[in-house]
Design a protein that fits this description.
The complex is a heterodimer. Chain A folds into two domains: 2-77 and 153-232, Rossmann fold, CATH 3.40.50; 89-151, no CATH class. In chain A, 39% of the residues lie in helices and 28% in strands. Chain A is built from ten helices and ten strands. In chain A, strands 6-7-8-3-9-10 form a six-stranded mixed beta sheet, sandwiched between helices. In chain B, helix 3 packs across helix 4. In chain B, 48% of the residues are buried. Chain B contains nine helices and ten strands. In chain B, a hairpin with a 2-residue loop joins strand 4 (57-62) and strand 5 (65-66). In chain B, 35% of the residues lie in helices and 25% in strands. By secondary structure, chain B is α/β, with parallel strands linked by helices. Classes of the chains: A alpha/beta, B alpha/beta. Chain A binds chain B through residues 13-14, 16, 35-39, 43, 83-84, 135-138, 159, 162-170, 192, 194-196, 229-233, and chain B through 36-39, 85-86, 131-136, 157, 160-166, 168, 190, 192-193, 229-231, 234.
Amino acid sequence: MSLLELRDVEARYGPVKALHGVTLSVDEGELVAVLGANGAGKTTTLRAVSGTVKRDGELTFSGARLPRRAEATARAGIAHVPEGRGTFSELSVWENLRLGAYTRRRGNVKEDAARVFNYFPRLEERRDQQAGTLSGGEQQMLALGRAIMARPRLLLLDEPSLGLAPLLVTEIFRVLATMKSEEGISVLVVEQNANLALAHASRAYVLEVGRVVVDGTSDELRKNESVRKSYLGY
Amino acid sequence: MPLLEVDSVFKRFGGIVALDDVSFDAEPGEIVGLIGPNGAGKTTAFNVITRLYTPEEGDVRFEDESLLRTPPSGVIRRGIARTFQNVELFRGMSVLDNVRVGAHARRGEQSPEDVLFYVNLHSLRYRAASELPYGTQKRVELARALASGPRLLLLDEPAGGLSHEEVNQLGTFIRRMRDDFELTVLLVEHHMGLVMSVADRVHVLDFGKKIAGGTPAEIRSNKEVIEAYLGAPA
């Protein structure tokens, strides 16, 4: 059974419709990629799931209707790492991580922080530093770490590679793969580095103007000529 | 004679040396790439050139005259305009009003409306900047910079949020813009496909030091650059 299911989901910003009926699913422990041009509705799709944009349609999570309010969605086990990271720049690394655990009722915060530091040793070195003074790559690590602190069942990631050097992008995806295999976290990731995304995803959806136009396994998409030309570049 | 000369510049923040004896230049009409790992000092270099930061040592010359006596507000009148890594638009203002601010700062020869046609944003001119997708916001920033009629244009990660195909189009566009507006372009970017295809020369920073400079072909085969930044070819 799918962990997350969207059927005919629509979303709008004021008078402007951004999603025209998106249908997609993410299975338990699966990493699924969303590809598409600028303005295709990728970010809005993630926002529709986390309840940070007004949306209509059928959304189920773990068999139950997905709550409408963002806070309830977070409590249900969905963590959203937004585009541009959204770390609290005035707070320290440690404070940002603790905030990640805010919605949880159980569990040991220190133990979870140790897991985050294990994934990203740089964050431990910078534990007491203000988040705003971290480099772009370190802020992305912090945003991911903060999401892990919530012990989510589903992680929504919006362009984790944005502004990161090639070596760091590879590192971030390596950590994602480890998280998925060791902790069974499901991941829905929007990513412009389509080659890398397909290398780690089992399936992917291609959005155009607010609709899914192609979907399939990563292998199928790699063989699709228009996907190759537009997103993979070979 | 170079249009821009960054000459033996040091910039420190507390104990951190963000720029450590960095020198590079840009000839008129050149597209110059500035690459390096996160935290290497690329954006700091932009902030020194645009006078947001004052270096402790060294000089920055534009048209053979030091920029260090020009206040930040005067930089645009000298003919230097920029875009920002994380998009710094006037969020509540329309696209057109954002571009008007650029035109107002220094009387560009083109009207804001003309510039919007040029960057293909005219149909969106009355939309609020904050409503637009990330990649489109980056294009609004570019239009705002162009509207000031610059001689030197600093682009901080213009490919952020764009798909492979869109990045290709952006590359063509940067070259066309350089020719049409007789610009010199300084480009910070992690998308190596873009940098290597549009730049005439590339400079590489690592931990605040310049570790290499040369043609794209020379940089791509430079061992130190591969180790510090590029990683093994994917």
